């Protein structure tokens, strides 16, 4: 489908950025790009290594989960991406990886506290981790229920997905999103670095306390507040 050439190229570049940024090895990750006007997203094909990918291999999926072309199977995480596009308005790109430090926090089932200003620059609060999925949810439709679990976590925690662009799925790993596929990968890189710093912090001092709130707010506001002055 030539009319989706640009969408496929966007998804392809995002997936290649996963590899360039060392967020995944072999086939351990996927990105997608969404066109809300046409109700279609393009996503990495399942089980294909990054060295073999080409733009034309990106799989087109509609908002009912229907694959528009049958040459390649979409990522096994497709239904999770679909739920996020349906439920989180304004999201145009989603990324999932198994980056090690983010996965370590997810495997521990722990949200990431704000230990320092690097974290506060991007999120003025903890990075949420979901609960572990129930046996019934796993048995029902694992990937669909993964998306539902993320949405429930945000509703229960009153998190705004436009402000909190990342989540850890307990026992699984990170999902990030943004206003483009490229931005979703960017947030994946940021999340991994924050999780790495947090891991080092608790290894040095297991009883480390979060950054004082007034410093958190200063760093968030100088980048994102009404009187932000960071950047040109």
Helix content: 40-55%
From the alpha carbons, calculate the radius of gyration and give it in angstroms: 18 Å
The CATH homologous superfamily is named: Class II aldolase/adducin N-terminal domain
User: How many strand segments?
Assistant: 6
Termini gap: 40 Å
Average per-residue pLDDT, rounded, comes to: 97
Q: What is the level-2 CATH architecture name?
A: 3-Layer(aba) Sandwich
Strand order of the largest sheet: 3-2-1-4-6-5
Overall SS class: alpha+beta
How many helical elements? 7
Q: What is the CATH topology descriptor?
A: L-fuculose-1-phosphate Aldolase
For the record, the count of structural domains works out to 1
CATH class categorisation: Alpha Beta
